[in-house]
Amino acid sequence: MTFTSPSFLLLFFPAAVIFFFLSDKRYRPYFLLFASGLFYVFNNPLFLPILIVVTWLNFILGKDLGQQREDEKRNKRTLILGVLLNVLMLVFYKFSELMLGDYALFILPSSAPSFFSHIMLPLGFSYIAFQNIAYLYDVHNEVNEAEMRFWDYALYTLFFPKVLVGPIMRYRMMKADLKNPTPNIENAAKGIRRMIIGLAKKVLIADIIARAINPSFELATPNFSSGIAWFMLIGYAVQLYYDFSGLTDMALGMGQIFGFDLMENFNYPYIAQSISDFWRRWHISLSSWVRDYIFTPMEFKRRRVKFARQQTHILLAFLIMGLWHGLTPNFILWGLFNGIFLALEITFLSKALRKAWRPLRHLYAICVVLIGWAIFRTSNLTYAVHFLGRLVGTASSVTPLPFVLTNPLPIIDNTVWLAFIIGLIFSIPVVPEFIRKFISRKGPFIKSVFAPVFCDVILVLLFLLSLASIISTNAVGNIYGGF
Amino acid sequence: MSEVYEQLNDIFREVFDNPEIEVSPEMTADDIEEWDSMTHINLILMIELRFDIEFDQKEVMRFENVNDLAVAIQRKL
User: Does this model's pTM top 0.80?
Assistant: First the structure.
């Protein structure tokens, strides 16, 4: 059950909201915890006991860190134990994913993968593990007090809106809301609007583009023309952004409905003027986590090191960023690729960029990001290299299929073009800003009555379209899934 | 205390490569464009070297503005 499953949108979530608002204020946090547990159970019942155990372990370690402050050595050992617990579980989870994937065939005999398929690590554990680590670290550093009530800590960790795609929340950001979520009608309305926008972004843009370009990425060799390669790359950039930010919008919208203020994870990343700027706009909760819990502590500890100190720490931090996504070479390479450009920027590139013509800065950033996405998307590095070659027009050994002919590639039909173009337009703030300014210049009737109503009508239409798209795809998926 | 601020002024101007900076107690990282997580450590390091003091990480994490920083420096002198 994901945020775009019909069972979630039409049953689970509406029921959760209704019961939440109907229940007494005192019981609302418990209800949310119950709903979160149920969300896990609907995904896989085995997840819940594992999560409860891990959460409880982190909770008692946190309590220990908060209560045993005088013995610094012991405090440090407890912190290391807690971090190791989460890291080992995370590595185990990532490793099993790896074993179940393509790499299993190259590393292990064919009997091995079936062992790993019995290992079910919980949905969203990557986010949960990082949250736990942040919490333990913050308690150790006295940035916040330890949470004394298991139920509140459990809700912090397992709150279902942020379990699928984050954001990775710091404990002190959620503390007040955990004890006493204060929903109100206005925020609930905003939340619903945000959820619908997120749903539309995911289903009407990301998924449509994905269906068109996924098969091409799954080919053994990229034997298509450079036109198709460019379409795939830019399409993927749009798809990834709308997929991730769409689901994030849904998460934040859900949080708002329940009275929680979850942090923003995106800020128009594709208008970045440098890679440093990009990482302040993309997956903000993860990049700030890596900055605060890996980069800054290392920087502080080794601050007296003279040679290439920051560059080393940046590379290490981004290596971890890559590994968080998966243990495969493409993620590691992608992480290091970003790290190298960041290291170059703090060494000399930033200064040079500041003097450059602004469009060049945007071009530089978008080129680096796109090359990064090519590495990120393709699990096979040979494919990636040939794919990048295709972008600049190098011919493959096989005659590339022309742009018009799409067999065996799927048809890039008008729906896909529409999704692609709308996706491109709204990935920069120009059009939304223009619309906002346009409306603000109009009279009070248009501003306070017509525009909001018109927006809500569009949202209802988007919601219905999204639902229709989900249900029709599901139907198709089920038919072909049977073969 | 004013001596501390005077030295801080020099340090800030050097670390952020901006001769126009004037530090004030309420100043935070939001007020200086070049002040981010990267330059923050350089700032702390230079302060430690100039004043011949040492901070521990917990202290540094709790600084919210220049005033907190100045008070911590004064205490160590």
Answer: yes
